[in-house]
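In the laboratory, one determines a bound structure by crystallizing the protein with its ligand and collecting diffraction data. In a computational setting the workflow is compressed into a single prediction: the sequence and the ligand go in, and a structural description comes out. We illustrate the idea with zinc ion.
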Amino acid sequence: MDSLLLYINKLKALNKVMSAYSTAKFCHQCGHSLISNTINLNNVGYCTICDISIYADPKVAAVVIVSNGNEILLVRRSIQPHIGKWSFISGYVNQAEQVESAAIREVKEEIDIDIKLIKLQGIYSGMSSVILIVYRAIHLSGIPKVSEEVSEFNWFSYDSMPDLPFPYDDLILRDFHNDLGSPI
Ligand SMILES: [Zn+2]
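The predicted complex, in structure-token form:
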């Protein structure tokens, strides 16, 4: 029952993301209202002034699984979305920023530690407007501290994970578990 509720909540969250994804209303060049256009079954905005189609591009986020054996360092979010929920350390990649640098930066910003990326775990896409690039990492130095984005942190073993709120979390966790013990 719990897992069904969790699933329903995830679908609701996903719907929210997807509706935000398809509601670009104004042209980013001239500010004029867009009309709706359908290209290859995708709903695309069209600006009649600039004669351009405005595609809703995906965003890219880096996710970092800082692990020690089968334990993973999670953070409790103090920002929306999903404020108060435990989560992997993650954040959006800036324009012209290397994804690896974004991963390292996000960990530093969220809990003030230095890490070493050890492996690209995978790329997760197709379930929301965000493409996730997920790295595995180890803690190099520094003592974790809370920050503006994080109210708490803790190490969790695979079989005592809290509920994770984002659409790809279960897949990421499963892949991490399946990959444990394989060569880096
Ligand atoms: Zn325009």
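The chain has two domains: 2-54, 59-179. Keep in mind that any predicted model is a hypothesis to be tested, not a measurement.
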